[in-house]
Design goal:
The chain is of the alpha+beta class. The chain has two domains: 89 residues; 232 residues, BirA Bifunctional Protein, domain 2, CATH 3.30.930. It contains eleven helices and ten strands. Strand 7 and strand 8 form a beta hairpin. The protein is elongated.
Length: 344
């Protein structure tokens, strides 16, 4: 093939490169000339039929053609890539004068703020945290806690039954029962936070769903003084060092003796006001010494081991801390209520 014919191929290829308006069109032209079965490689196949004296000059001419095409393709690709980028930038242009989207930060419901604070306080006192199912058996929810069938204390926990032996737990005490059943008679120091359910009228101070944190400590030589000291430390950590507590006799089927626990009113300093109904004290939780029957049913020897238990209402603590006047506000998903606690 004469040099003039190679020049014609070069001119044809350069024209095709110039006519290519997109990268895909350019690639098609490249494949026509430079692919494995393209025209340039076919020209190289002619070497074997040429006389030896002509092969060197022919090979050089074909190689020069190939290098010229590669250079032309590379330059055209740069131009077309720049054009494609400019077209994309133009079509996807953002009007930065438009107002941006404002994403509001969420706020933590005070229910969970109080729950986390309570857990942190008792973790600092050496307790561990245990959790359990919200759907419980009658055996763990009542019987292992010294509340047998037809016991009048069940009337105080009118409940949501799924069937005759399964219900939504009415307190977090079943978690304590599970822990005791698995402890093999060994000491226990645990708190159990979570939601509980009781059929109740919904008003400013009652809800069919509410939160508890219950504590349990079992060991040798535990007495009511240990419970008093523990709860005094808790109250001062939660409400301030000036707060005091007092015990009043009460009744719970799973503790004996049982006590109601009051905290001195932060509003009046114990002098008496409308918040504490003139008494200077506000009821905050209940507790007592673990009943010997409860110890026996979980494999403990009540002559050797003793313990105390207590239960704290999470909403009650939050209402005292933040001055919330209606328990239903915790569950109504009103962002205006929740955002009040953004900076607390």
């Amino acid at each position: 093939m004469k040099e003039q014919e190679l020049q014609l191929i070069l001119a044809s290829a350069l024209q095709a490169i110039t006519d290519a308006k997109t990268l895909s069109e350019l690639q098609q032209v490249r494949d026509t000339y430079l692919a494995k079965k393209g025209q340039v490689n076919q020209l190289m196949g002619n070497l074997k039929v040429l006389p030896p004296a002509e092969r060197s000059s022919y090979g050089k001419a074909v190689n020069d053609l190939k290098m010229a095409l590669i250079s032309a393709f590379d330059q055209a690709q740069i131009v077309l890539e720049a054009a494609a980028l400019n077209e994309k930038l133009t079509s996807e242009k953002i009007d930065i004068t438009l107002p941006g989207y404002v994403h509001q930060a969420g706020a933590k419901n005070p229910f969970f703020t109080i729950q986390d604070e309570l857990c942190a306080i008792f973790l600092g006192l050496g307790y561990t945290i245990a959790e359990g199912p919200e759907i419980e058996s009658d055996h763990f929810n009542f019987e292992l806690l010294n509340i047998p069938q037809d016991h009048p204390a069940r009337d105080m926990q009118d409940s949501f039954y799924i069937d005759e032996n399964t219900l939504l737990r009415t307190h977090t005490s079943p978690v304590q029962a599970h822990v005791m059943q698995n402890a093999d008679g060994q000491p226990i120091k645990v708190v159990c936070p979570g939601k509980v359910y009781r059929r109740d009228d919904d008003d400013a101070t009652h809800s069919h769903q509410f939160g508890q944190l219950e504590g349990l400590l079992i060991d040798e030589g535990i007495h009511l003084g240990h419970l008093y000291a523990t709860l005094q430390l808790f109250v001062q950590a939660m409400f301030g060092e000036k707060r005091e507590i007092r015990f009043r006799s009460s009744y719970f089927p799973f503790t004996e003796p049982s006590v109601e626990v009051d905290v001195s009113c932060a509003n009046c300093g114990g002098k008496g006001c409308s918040m504490c109904k003139g008494s200077g004290w506000i009821e905050i939780l209940g507790g007592g010494m673990v009943h010997p029957n409860v110890l026996k049913m979980s494999g403990y020897d009540p002559d050797k081991m003793s313990g105390f238990a207590f239960g704290i209402g999470l909403e009650r603590v939050a209402m005292l801390r933040y001055g919330i006047d209606d328990i239903r506000k915790f569950y109504q998903n009103d962002v205006r209520f929740i955002h009040q606690f953004n900076k607390r």
